[in-house]
Amino acid sequence: MADKFSSSHKKDFTINLSEVIPYTIEFSKDAKEITLTKGVITGEISLDSLALELAQRLDIAYEDVFFKKNEKNDFLIIFTSEDFIDISIAESLILEMIAIELPYSLKNTDTHKVFTYITENLFGIPLIGSMYFGVIDRGTNLLQVRSLTGCPLNCPFCSVDEGPVTKTKHRDFIIDSDYLVSTFDHVVKEKELEKAEAHLDGQGEPMAYPYIVDLVQGLANNPNTAIISAQTNGWYLTEKLVDDLEDAGLSRINLSINSMELSNAKRLSGRGDFPLQKILDMAEYIANSKISLLLAPLWIPGINDSDIEEIVKFSKRINSKEKRFPTLGIQNYLIHHQGRNMKGVKSKTFKTFNEQLREFERKYDVSNLVLKQSMFESYKSNMLSNPLKVGEIISGRVVLPGRLNDEVFTVAKNRIIHVTGTEGLSIGTKIKARIIRNRHNIFFAKKV
Ligand code: SF4
Description:
The protein is an alpha/beta fold. It is 25% helix and 26% strand. It has three domains: 11-105, no CATH class; 114-376, Aldolase class I (TIM Barrel, Alpha-Beta Barrel); 393-447, CATH 2.40.50.140. It contains ten helices and 23 strands. The structure holds iron/sulfur cluster.
């Protein structure tokens, strides 16, 4: 199919697909498929199906549809026909086909897991109720906005067992940015927030989201958004991305640097190719932009004690002009039963931890190491209405497989609900489940 030549007596009509869709397009080795890639999203389209569908819809012969690459490596679709072909109609048909086909083959290039792309129209899944994706309200002006799951790092202390080495997560989710923004707008309105903070975080790496700039822009368009902040491990940061996020309206980046020394940084990221110097350079670049920078190392007793002091000094050196937010958010290492923990490491009490931070404040003449909500312009607010009670029995259908082996999702009262005890159930199966946990509008149920 690839690189066939058109017959000379007919006229050629060409679409440069690389200019129409924002994906890198490559032929598969056997040239039977094309692989479309954007950031961590990758998926395949069968060229046979594409040619058949186009031939049928444009009323031309299957043999008159060709695919090839030009000298710029752009992907071309060529139709040969004696009759006129309206290229704009052909382009719309191709976009429609890709939109229908692609979601079924998506993979996350970080984790190599299936990626389920959730849009407003697909499955009719609400974006409130899950800990994995959507919008989470914990009763303040800060709303957590979760656009995708999956992470390129394998940190040995990961509290949510993310990354390529995960043993518990079998699937990733990615959410349409318009759908996330409309859910955020809805929650801001229902909570009557005048100064909302959109905080991009997640079970994974928020900067891996290929539409993060559009997302920030969309969140900034809400007149009641006062702050947009994002967590990151720095892996995907580039100067261009920081510039684009600055223009889009990002207020603060919380960057997790856990060591200033290469071998420890590699160990703590679980990646032998961890680009420490690049991430330190990016920290400096952010500190010199309009985006506030907060360095957020995890203090792991006995593992990175001296690193923490080096990070305090580094922050003081590169980020002294920051006035709006604290510049350091040192985290206390905690044991997480459902995550990964470092062998033999014990966590400190918060009393000891805070005493040590106060000592650093004196030693390095810095303030705000012991953090308070008010330092982040955060305040308590109405909770989003919570429509389901613990013990309540719900009935519905499986709308999505979950991330864990025995987990699926169902929907009730406009909330998405994790249901366990469901191994082997497929989409569409009717289920009944009892709500067993319900906190901050995040719902867990067990099949009955
Ligand atoms: S960067 Fe965060 S989400 Fe990713 S593996 Fe490390 S701790 Fe987990």
